[in-house]
Amino acid sequence: MRSSRHSNKYLIMYKISKLKNGLTLLKVPLKGTQSVTVLVLFPVGSRYETKDYAGAAHFVEHMIFKGTEKRPLATDISRTLDALGADYNAFTSKDYTGYYIKIAQEKQEVAFDILSDVIYHSTFAAAEIEKEKGAIVEELRMYKDNPGMAIDMLFDKLMFGDTPLGWDIGGSESTVRSFTRDQLSSYYQAHYSPKNTLLVVAGAFGASAEKKIASYFGESPAKGGSASGGKNILDHKKSFAHFEWPKKDLPLAERIMAEEKKLDQANLIIGFPGLENDHPDRYAASILLNILGGGMSSRLFVEVREKRGLAYMVRAGSTSFRDVGVASVQAGLDPSRLSEALQVIKAEIERIAKEPVTAQELENAKTNLAGRLALSLEDSSTQAEWYGKQFLFNKKIRLPKGVVGNINKVTIKDVQRLAKQFFIMSEMRLAIIGPLSKAVVIDMVSKL
Length: 448
What we know:
alpha+beta, Cytochrome Bc1 Complex, Chain A, domain 1, 16 helices
């Protein structure tokens, strides 16, 4: 058992232990809340799939709430939770899959009961699988038909190519329709064993919670794998195909993807190779991107929106995985003013790489990031996700106090060094969806 206790404004304490069946339990007690969030995380997602199995993790996620031996119908689960006003859902990422129930403190045992039941005893009824195929296909179509969502998928394809990181998390219509009950059940049994499970409980759960947690989650389930089977939760930090950027600069035509659609707006993301999740420069990166496009006083917001009215939304950010990351700028623009907007964005990107940021910008970014962190961690569900991802993706859990301390250590030189490392124009990628052909976009970018 391992624990850490702190009495600062960002956090009180967390405690890590193991149940007898190998499940990892991470408890985060919080004062000043009447809720409890119960979050189950598995360190597998779409990047662990092969092409034939693309979408399997997402399909299994859908099936977990579709019925158990104890609760045969999906409505047996949803009606109980809805009647209690609980917030519940599931999600699939490229690196992990999660299931959570956020519920009133006095009803927390219901969350333990239902979440352990669906994780350990989902039946994967053949009829439900066939029905869910249609629902998932419609979900895929919904994302493709929404430019604000589709641009993310196009961008991933552009950045990572024909690799698991570049594939749609949900798979394709053909792979979704091809899955059999045996395939999905095999995936479930292989990955959903207690040894491969992280259970995070955050909020006002009380001193007696651990015994209740052990009574519900401590079994060796028949359908979810056995306590002795499957990989250990930490093994997945190495068991995937690592991505590597091309060693040579790609021609412009290979660094641009354009999906021509009759739209009133051009949705675009500009990307550069970034940092993996646990990189020591992650604090400097957060400050750099905050100054560039992290808020309404950021450089891009002021120059693109406030001064010129070129966009309603423009922002900079990053995405990080275990082995690789991306720094990006995203915007929704008037297609007729796209060339002007790209010129302004390019100028700001080049300026932040060439000229040191000001001391005031640095200080403002530090206090902004610290303030956002403090506000977000007031909620039990955010706390649960914070600590769960810390455990899965970092060498050690980073306490909020330590994160803020590391942010405060970042210097102007750190920010400029990282800007020069990120913003190399010959490595820039551009994904765009709008009423413009790829040839037009290439011509426009080549003249910048």
